[in-house]
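Async update (no meeting this week)

Hi team, since we skipped the sync, here's where things stand on the single-chain job. The sequence we agreed to prioritize is pasted below, unchanged from the tracker. I ran it this morning and attached the output directly underneath so nobody has to dig for it. Comments welcome in thread, and please keep replies under the output.
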Amino acid sequence: TVVCCVCLESIAVGCRMFCTSLATSPQEEPGGRAKIGWGHEFCYSANLPAAPLCRHWTRLGRCPSLEAGMCAFSHPDVSK
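Output:
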């Protein structure tokens, strides 16, 4: 079960959701990766931290999930 990082309620299977960076330092996570949280689409507000950068985009300059319209992570306007 995934819990919304905003309202702390369970997110049901099939619900649209967003991801955001949680307020932890990269040193706290293995490999130096920032911790992410998930939230209901209707719990989103503009004052939340931005979604972390997509690892596929960073590594490959493209994202298969974005191309399918399913990636919740951020993607810069310019590719590698």
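Quick observations from my side:
Helices lie at 55-60, 64-67.
The radius of gyration is 13 Å.
Reply here if anything looks off.
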